[in-house]
Amino acid sequence: MIDLYFAPTPNGHKVSILLEELGIPFRIVPLNIMRGDQFSDEYLKINPNNRMPGMVDTEPAGGGAPVAVFESGAIMMYLAEKTGRFWPQDLRGKYEVTQWLIWQMANQGPKFGECGHFRRLGDRQGDQSYAVRRFTDEVNRICGVMNNRLYDRRYLAGEIYTIADMISYPWASHWENYGQDINEFKHLKRWLDELAARPAVQRGMAAGKGIFGDQAQVTPEEQERINKMLFNQRARPAPDAKRK
After folding, report:
1. Cα 196 to the center of its chain, rounded Å
2. Maximum separation of any 2 CA atoms in the chain, in Å
3. Where are the alpha helices (DSSP H) in 90-196?
4. How much is the pTM?
5. What is residue 55's three-state secondary structure?
6. DSSP assignment, residue 154?
């Protein structure tokens, strides 16, 4: 059994898509990041970065104690390797996929995330026009990278569907939130439409609905509390206990 510590965000949906594609048993452990579940001491043992998602494999290959993994890319590599699916293991095939997996973690995800943050922020913290322009342009550049990659191949790593596609889909599928016109990127649009039609992708993207509750009912005071908790975080103190 796979326990997926999860909230319905693009980073969570990467993993839920893969689990649905694999068709293996898994259980969603809801993490309401608006409430601060990710900061609990219990979850810290699974994910020392206090972010989402985290995973525990209660039946790892070869037996033994459960295995905990954090970071969406690492989780996807673990699951693909364990099941022998969606990640070729020949030298060329493996690194064709791996480079796009790392690209997503280092480029697409962070830049899309910053773009969304500053576009939602508005002028509540002063003039954000430079940051909005900077990250909106960077998202446009990244969409262009994907579009140019996909003009002469079906998927990001070539002609087979892999974890490189699954990890990149959730952020790219919300292009309208980042000030983009998908019609500018016809090859990316073709890829998005193809993945969106896959039943497992549909189930993976629908996972976790309701975990955040009804956001329309959040009061301004509650939203301010959430903002203070989620943003401008600083270092968490190390435990005082002496190392053994």
Report:
1. 16
2. 59
3. 91-103, 109-121, 129-150, 163-172, 186-196
4. 0.90
5. strand
6. S
